[in-house]
Amino acid sequence: MDRSLTGRIGRVSGHVGPGTVGEVMVPFQGGTRAFFAHPYDGSSDYPVGERVLVMYFEPPQTVYVEQLPDFLREDA
Q1: Is a pLDDT exceeding 60 seen at residue 75?
Q2: Helix (H, G, I), strand (E, B) or coil at 72
Q3: 3-state class of 30 per DSSP?
Q4: For 5-15, what is each residue's pLDDT tens digit?
Q5: How far apart are CA 58 and CA 2, in angstroms?
Q6: Cα(39)–Cα(18) distance, integer angstroms
Q7: pTM of structure
Q8: Does residue 29 register a pLDDT over 90?
Q9: Residues in a beta bridge with 65
């Protein structure tokens, strides 16, 4: 299992929700890269611009994300 992206914070660039393939921009290998994205719990919705936490990386280019916990939010 590849955990290289687990725990990274990304920003939604294409709506992530159940039954859709969204997109999240994640810092990766010295730059920022787009990954296909799905909600980790299978039912949450994340609008464009929301910051999310990567829970699982499925190579080559898919991540599963969940809501960013309060303690990681800059505005908290």
Answers
A1: yes
A2: helix
A3: coil
A4: 999 999 999 99
A5: 7
A6: 7
A7: 0.89
A8: no
A9: 39, 54
